[in-house]
Design goal:
The chain contains six helices and seven strands. It is of the alpha+beta class. α1 packs across α4, α2 crosses α4 and α4 packs across α6.
């Protein structure tokens, strides 16, 4: 295990006004994403080497379709992928790309500002693990990704319902599949 030099950024929680630190930067390798906890425990995920990346991508595309693009799908993917990452050794949740909530108020809205003179810290390079995810049955994995899609793609249910009621084309060929997806999404909302 080596070390990675990261830059410490000052953040201010929007609700409490308290300052906290997050880290930014990743090893200089294409496809590496940063994951960190509120106590600054850091792990990395390599999208080109981690098979869970492709699995979550395939599940999300099968649920949301390829017509969903832009920041909506990126947010849905990040939420779904975060569900596959095991907690830190201390039991804390990892958050992607330095998007950690304020440890004081829990707000996900923060103001970020780099220090006037950069402050760097060396952190051990660890890779995320997916043991909890790998222990899930395929149906549970799909439900997890569906919950992330439903939470971050507000138009998904509307698009699926509109497609379900259409005649011909895609809807005719996939009507039963769409009915199943909508039923599963609706079941997720029930207490």
């Amino acid at each position: 295990m080596g070390l990675c030099r990261m830059e410490a950024w000052r953040n201010t929680g929007e609700e409490c006004g308290q300052q906290f630190v997050s880290l930014t930067g990743a090893p200089e390798d294409y496809g590496v994403r940063l994951w960190e906890t509120t106590s600054l425990d850091v792990a990395f995920l390599h999208s080109l080497k981690d098979p869970i990346w492709d699995e979550v991508t395939a599940l999300l595309v099968s649920i949301a379709g390829t017509a969903t693009i832009g920041t909506e799908i990126v947010h849905a993917f990040t939420l779904a992928l975060s569900e596959t990452v095991d907690p830190s050794a201390a039991g804390e949740r990892y958050y992607a790309d330095g998007d950690i909530p304020c440890p004081n108020c829990g707000s996900r809205s923060s103001r970020f500002s780099g220090p006037s003179s950069p402050r760097f810290v060396d952190v051990p390079v660890r890779w995320v693990t997916h043991q909890r995810w790998e222990a899930l049955a395929p149906v549970e994995r799909r439900r997890t990704v569906e919950r992330a899609a439903l939470a971050s793609l507000p138009g998904l249910r509307t698009r699926l319902r509109a497609t379900r009621g259409a005649r011909g084309g895609f809807a005719a060929a996939h009507r039963e599949t769409l009915k199943g997806v909508i039923a599963r999404l609706e079941a997720l909302e029930e207490p």
